[in-house]
Amino acid sequence: MSHNLLAGKRGIIFGALNESSIAWKVAQRAVQEGAKITLTNAPIALRMGEMNALAEECKAEIIPADVTNMEDLANLFTKSVEILGGKIDFVLHSVGMSINVRKGIHYTEANHEFMHKGFDISAMSLHRVLQTAYKQDAINEWGSVVALSYIAAQRVFPDYNDMGDAKALLESITRSFGYHYGKHRHVRVNSISQSPTYTTAGSGVKGFDGFYNYADKMSPLGNATADQCADYCITMFSDFTKMVTMQNLFHDGGFSFTGVSPDVIESLTTK
Predict the structure, then answer these.
(1) For the segment 208-234, what is each residue's pLDDT rounded down to a tens digit?
(2) 3-state SS string over the chain?
(3) Domain span at residue 179?
(4) Rounded to two decimals, what is the model's pTM?
(5) Of 107, 134, 160, 179, catalytic
């Protein structure tokens, strides 16, 4: 059901790969709520993913962009403003990658070149995106930028590896650039810390099934789904959250503030 929360707004969605991606669902919901969007991902992801189907459904153009390349990002914003007919109102940053995780390298043995590449793609890319938009004055006043994060930025989840460090940096950039962009153009910048979710990236983490079930038992409301995260992103893009900025917002069914639950205690109790 549509409430026209984004009627007349223009947005850029980073990171939609396939139907399990949160970014995919955010794109669908944004269009359902009245927005016009462009889609972007790395050229290699465009070859691997299924974005053409999403682009057709959303009547959106795809603009390839490597988030570590400033020229690509400049082109992305320039073309998006041209295609959409005006400045951007919202951006979703749904970008993350760890070579150490992919290669199964333990955190204590991390390859630092791989780690640097992961930070570059997963966190520093947000700074690049914001810097590009800032310099081009490409985002409308009171616009909204949302980056997807995870609670491993605050707590240790061993198998999440160096992605926890990357998310901590991502959230720090959210706060720091959020301050400057807020002073400059009232643009708000926030991160959303989502429940473990069965996306292509999430499912690649060792022991994900077990942790998904653990988080579901810990959370009084259960795990938040990708569709529910998309709904939350839409509210953050809307005019109803104009005074929210520089925040890391937990969207996890209460997991982040629950010490332990009876369900978890029962599962650990020996009879």
Answers:
(1) 788 899 999 999 999 999 999 999 999
(2) CCCCCCCCCEEEEECCCCCCCHHHHHHHHHHHCCCEEEEECCHHHHHHCCHHHHHHHHCCEECCCCCCCHHHHHHHHHHHHHHHCCCEEEEEECCCCCHHHHCCCCHHHCCHHHHHHHHHHHHHHHHHHHHHHHHHCCEEEEEEEEEEECHHHCCCCHHHCCHHHHHHHHHHHHHHHHHHHHHHHCCEEEEEEECCCCCCCHHHCCCHHHHHHHHHHHCCCCCCCHHHHHHHHHHHHCHHHCCCCCCEEEECCCHHHCCCCHHHHHHHCCC
(3) 10-268
(4) 0.95
(5) 160
